[in-house]
Amino acid sequence: MNSDQRPTFLARLARRPAPIFLGLAVGFLACCAAGRVAARQQPYKNFVRFHPGLGLESHYYPTFSQTLNLAREKAVPGKTLVLVGGNSVLHGVGQRVAHVWSAELQKLLGEDYVVLNLAMRGQAPNEFGGVVAERLAVDGVPVVYVTLGFPQLGWGSDWDGSATYRYFFWDAWGKGLIPSDSRRDPWLDEGFFSTFAKDQQALEARRRGRIDGLTYAQDLWTYVAARFRGSVWTPLKYPRFWRPHCDEPDTDPGSTQPWELANNETVAPIEMSVVRSVIQTPTSQGLLKGEQYAAVAKAYAALAPDALRHRTLYVLRLEGTYYRKRLSTDEQTAYLEIHKRYADAVRQGGMHALVFGENYADKDYFDRSHLSESGGRKLAEELAPVVRAIASERSGAKAPDVGEEKP
User: Fold this and answer.
1) Distance from C-alpha of 320 to C-alpha of 304, rounded to nearest angstrom
2) Do 264 and 246 touch, CB atoms closer than 8 A?
3) Is 77 helix (H, G, I), strand (E, B) or coil?
């Protein structure tokens, strides 16, 4: 009987580890190369907007490179690219994908313009779509950036955006795609560390951006997850969480949901507190007294990069008519006047602004804050001439005043 014991497979590998480490190195480098290839792709088929199946709600994080490729694909020579940013209001929550307001804006603007909706839920005015718009503007693309303005000071974000979408800015920064800006550059070098010295999430986002600028790992994962197989379990895709994200439907119910479901006596007291809060802020009260104009203009310009400052249209939304009508007569007058003065202050700072919703009907809103499909069409009608004016202004042609609302 032969008592010799042969060495195990792992024991033989331990004696000669070089092939193991060589294989790991080759595999790692191959993934990095594949990531760089993926970063040059645009994985989205028949793109309309980043709905929850293509967004953070399903643990899908669009990368800067692939989103920029999407925008560049839309940037047809000889046409103005109208890039929509902002939060869920401009995203089109409350509107079915076939009736989203940005598609109506495209129809009204005509063939000389291309509209791309990059608005995301919970997005601050300067992030995500704003980062893409700035890169395109610096690259010479004729772009107009439409984003939501807020009747308040402070957007809960910095140059790198809010905590939710901070990764997107640092993804671009790590790849060297954030343009130089006279006010942002000092912040990147020093201001960031003084602001976020103890914010581990912010520091980690910066480190991740630097590493991913070398490995392009996020681009590889995102491309595979969008086109072939998802790898992260999420309740939104249950039970087939592995389905490609591009195969997920945009399921916003829009006008198929009864209007009364989101607008009724039960929710009215809570929603009214939100509406009234706009009137009660110190800035709003100051504007009503003819003060705070410079402070508002400074706040809006603070995070607007030089390349986008005169290409950006801030739209300020009046809350749902159903709720505004519940204000007293004096409150209604003050509420509308505050928004108009916010817009005036933004214009005095050399930027563009428009207030919308003044003459909308109750059912032009999906709920207190979002527009219904009919309201989206009205928004598109208001914005179209203003966008044309900004585009003409940037091209050097004589343009009308872009700051006035429609009567």
Assistant:
1) 28
2) no
3) coil
**3-class SS at 193?**
helix
Say whether 232 sits in a helix, a strand or coil.
Answer: coil
Q: What's the Cα-to-Cα distance from 98 to each of 103, 378, 405, rounded to whole Å?
A: 8, 16, 27
CA-only gyration radius of the chain, Å: 24
> Which stretches within 349-399 are classed as H helix?
373-395
**Residue 310 CB-density burial (10 A; 0-12 exposed, 13-18 middle, 19+ buried):** middle
Strands annotated E in 176-262: none
Q: Are 81 and 143 in contact (CB under 8 A)?
A: yes
Return averaged pLDDT per consecutive 10 residues of the chain, 407 residues in all: 66 72 84 93 94 93 97 94 96 97 97 96 90 96 94 76 92 96 94 89 94 95 94 86 92 95 95 94 94 92 90 96 97 97 94 96 97 98 97 69 43
Measure the CA–CA gap between 66 and 82, rounded to whole angstroms: 18
β-sheet bridge partners, residue 385: none
Residue 269's DSSP bridge partners are: none
* CA 182/CA 61 separation, integer angstroms: 29
**Closest alpha carbon to 39 in 78, 57, 66:** 66
The DSSP-derived string for 86-128 is: SSHHHHTTTS-GGG-HHHHHHHHH-TTEEEEE---TT--TTST
Q: How far lies 112's CA from each of 49, 85, 252, 391, in Å?
A: 21, 20, 29, 11
Q: What is the pLDDT of residue 13?
A: 66
Within its chain, how far is the Cα of 212 from the centroid?
A: 21
pLDDT score recorded for residue 197: 84
Asked if residues 341 and 164 have their Cβ atoms less than 8 Å apart, the reply is: no
Distance CA 165, CA 169 (A): 8
Contacts of 142 (CB under 8 A, 6+ apart): 79, 80, 81, 391, 394, 395
